[in-house]
Specification:
Number of helices: 8
Number of domains: 2
Distance between the termini: 38 Å
Strand content: 15-25%
CATH class of the largest domain: Alpha Beta
Shape: globular
CATH architecture of the largest domain: 2-Layer Sandwich
CATH superfamily of the largest domain: Ribonuclease H-like superfamily/Ribonuclease H
Structural class: alpha+beta
Number of strands: 9
CATH topology of the largest domain: Nucleotidyltransferase, domain 5
Largest sheet: 6 strands, mixed
Amino acid sequence: MAKKKFYVVWQGRQTGIFTDWPSTEAAVSGVAGAKYKGYASEAEAQAALKMGYQKALSAKPAAKPAGKAKAAAKPSSAALPDTDWVIYADGACDPNPGQAGTGLSLYQQGQVTELWYGLYQPMGTNNTAELNGLLAALKLAQRGVDQGASVTVLCDSQYAINCVSRWADSWKAQGWTRKGDPIKNLELIQQAYALWQTLKGRITLAHVPGHAGIEGNELADRMSVYAVEQKETALVRYPEPLDLATVLAMRAG
């Protein structure tokens, strides 16, 4: 029997502590900038809720008895949403603008099963890389939905999420224009928005903090940098067997 988890929602349709994933999903699904995290105990969840989102993410675990020095903690996947599939998307660009690439990590039933990299741009930006990542993640999510899986897509770019799930509605209503400056990266936004319209209400799309020690995000980050190093223009599956320690030791973005 699976251990009970407690989900803290700091920002969503409803906030507070939830004790099952369906209720949590209903509170955060489709909410731009939704902020939530799972905890193993009610005490941890209560403490995190009081701390607030940013403090809770940066809070260190309780000190353990002194003993032999240990290596730095590895990225954690403990807070994975309770859906069949969890897809992390990320993009890298250095300098900005400059060479850009995209990475994805896919968890199925709580285990990493696929890593993807590519969509290299010789002259891209952080935003184009992140939008490419979100678009690729939505395409992968469609595959999961077609197989009957519940799916969560997590992206560390609030810009990409807002473009697709929040701002694009009004831009489309205005003929894909806006007051002031033209809409940047419009073609990518239109593609991702069109796909989001078919998936909205069927998957969860939410923000995840970048470089916060979350395993799936860190893996996607390494893949995005690897895409730049390999100059891979297609989206390519990273070869198996997956050695996560080796991947996480790659250069970070």
